[in-house]
Amino acid sequence: MNIFYSSSCLDYHSPGHPESPERVRSVAGYLKSKGFPFLVPVPCSMEDLLLVHDPRMIQAVRGGTFVDPDTPCLPGIFGYAALAAGSAICAMRDAVGGRTAFSLMRPPGHHATPTRVMGFCYFNNMAIASARFLADCPLKRIAILDIDCHHGNGTEDFALGRDRILYVSLHQSPLYPGTGLESPMNCVNFPLPPFTGEAPYMAALESACDRIREFNPELLGVSAGFDTYEEDPLTQLKLKVSSYRKMGRMISRISCPMFIVLEGGYAEKLSSCVLQFIEGME
Predict the structure, then answer these.
(1) What is the DSSP code (8-state) at residue 44?
(2) Rounded mean pLDDT of 106-128?
(3) Which CATH class, in words, describes the domain spanning 2-281?
(4) CA-based, 20 to 30 A from 8: which of 26, 196, 217, 233?
């Protein structure tokens, strides 16, 4: 599995913010020590951004004129966010070429809607990579599986009503952002109560994988958040480190080309969770 990563994503930070450089720095160092091949991503283009986001939103990020209490307006954030989105596109293209790939970048993306930043997210990396795939392959379909503990409201907003996309999310509820309680149209949601452990989670994931197999996509994008881990400071699900290997193995049995994009995960054992997941997928 190729890992798309650039150390430049460590160059911005907001003191005290949970979405810190250290979370990705530690994972990158750990995966390098295990011998995974690393590739350097390139930023997405304006054309790529416009496949998903409103021009006024893009300009607000570029000009630093947006306001969101969870999503700091930091110097250079447009470039960092464009690189994270570009990395997701690189991983998508690797998958189309026949090799599973992982975009290990920040900032995350799945809360960013077509019109606003929110929830630590500036541009929606998964939505942009998916939109690029659909534009490049006009007869093919993509499924998006979101396993972050928070519902990917931005990705759902993008996907809703598009017949060549299936969006499937497993997430804690109640929890920020408070969406994902129903399953409208082509978006399938599995809201899980706080303190859900491995057995019921894996049962829900099996149902999610069945829905994806029924859709029979040519490509699968996985929004991989690791804040479902039991020691995550922002959430209350109860998965173990070993749970992620089982998750990766179950998802890999969908048997179609796939790519992975990092979303959340804020516990000290993030590196171990990521390794278990991607080893389960190989």
Answers:
(1) P
(2) 98
(3) alpha beta
(4) 233
Check pLDDT > 90 for residue 277. Answer: yes
List the domain boundaries for the chain.
Answer: 2-281
pLDDT digit string, tens, across residues 170-192: 999 999 999 999 999 999 999 99
Interaxial angle between packed helices 243-252 and 198-215, expressed in degrees from 0 to 180 and rounded to the nearest 10: 20
pTM: 0.97
Which residue, 191, 194, 201, is CA-closest to 243? 201
Going by C-alpha positions, the residue among 112, 139, 138 that lies closest to residue 126 is: 112
* Burial group, residue 47, by CB count within 10 angstroms (0-12, 13-18, 19+): exposed
Q: What residues are labeled active site?
A: 111
pLDDT of amino acid 118: 98
- As to burial, measured by CB atoms within 10 angstroms (0-12 exposed, 13-18 middle, 19+ buried), residue 20 is middle
Q: What is the mean pLDDT of the chain?
A: 98
Confirm if 144 and 167 have CB atoms less than 8 A apart. Answer: yes
d(CA 21, CA 12): 7
Q: Which amino acid is at 58?
A: I
Could you tell me which of 199, 271, 225, 227 has the C-alpha nearest to residue 110? 225
Label residue 228 exposed, middle or buried (CB < 10 Å: 0-12, 13-18, 19+): buried
Which helix (H) or strand (E) covers residue 172, if one does? strand 165-172
Average pLDDT over residues 143-149: 98
Question: If you ran DSSP here, which 8-state letter would residue 19 be given?
Answer: S
Work out whether strand 38-39 and strand 2-4 pair parallel, antiparallel, or are unpaired. Answer: parallel
CB 112 within 8 A of CB 56: no
